[in-house]
Design goal:
The chain is of the alpha+beta class. About 35% of the residues lie in helices and about 30% in strands. The longest helix is centred in the N-terminal third of the chain and has 24 residues, at about 1-25. The radius of gyration is 22 Å and the shape is elongated. Bound molecules: 2-acetamido-2-deoxy-beta-D-glucopyranose (3 copies). One 2-acetamido-2-deoxy-beta-D-glucopyranose binds near residues 56, 58 and 107. It comes from Pangasianodon hypophthalmus.
């Protein structure tokens, strides 16, 4: 009886873990530095030549329509900062390159397909490299020295 209850909880637990890992996998996290450029990945696993890139489900980043890049509906914040790779479209690769990254570029990007299929989702994080590098190095050096002191005693 006890084992049976535990067994059921275990199954539910594993099931929840599976759901969690599946939903976690569908969002790709991309880190990039301020002022640099980044590739936002998007791959279609079905036959299409159309993909609509959106920021936060609202701003238009760019539209790829029947294998042609279209900037007509593009939000001005992305002007001249988006590059696509037309030679890859036929392979289902609709990745784009976003340049001159700003802090406000951080957030959720979706690559939407015309059918009802799930969009690709990318979470972009924009970091300032200077502070991160300068702050972290002394810390690890300190830990290393501390380790040496402890080991020699
Ligand atoms: C995302 O969109 C919602 C409404 O659609 C808006 O309230 C929110 O401020 C937006 N966030 C960013 C980071 O643009
Ligand atoms: C898609 O194309 C981009 C740009 O050429 C490239 O960086 C990326 O590796 C490609 N992705 C795949 C899955 O081939
Ligand atoms: C980030 O580091 C690179 C060199 O690694 C440098 O060229 C660039 O200016 C740095 N960006 C910022 C915002 O500090």
């Amino acid at each position: 009886m006890f084992v049976d209850v535990n067994g059921r909880y275990f199954v539910v637990f594993v099931f929840l873990m599976l759901i969690n890992s599946v939903s976690a996998q569908s969002v790709q996290v991309v880190n990039a530095n301020l002022g640099r450029s980044v590739i936002l990945p998007c791959t279609a696993n079905h036959d299409t030549l159309t993909a609509y890139w959106r920021y936060n489900d609202s701003k238009t980043v760019c539209d790829i329509i029947r294998g042609k890049v279209n900037f007509e509906e593009q939000d001005p914040v992305y002007k001249s900062r988006v590059e696509s790779f037309p030679s890859k479209f036929a392979k289902g690769n609709f990745s784009i390159k976003l340049s001159n990254l700003k802090k406000s570029d951080a957030g959720i990007y979706t690559c939407n397909f015309p059918s009802t299929l799930t969009p690709g989702t990318v979470q972009l994080r924009v970091t300032e490299n200077r502070t991160g590098d300068v702050m972290r190095r002394p810390d690890s050096l300190l830990l290393f020295l501390l380790g040496c002191v402890l080991l020699s005693n």
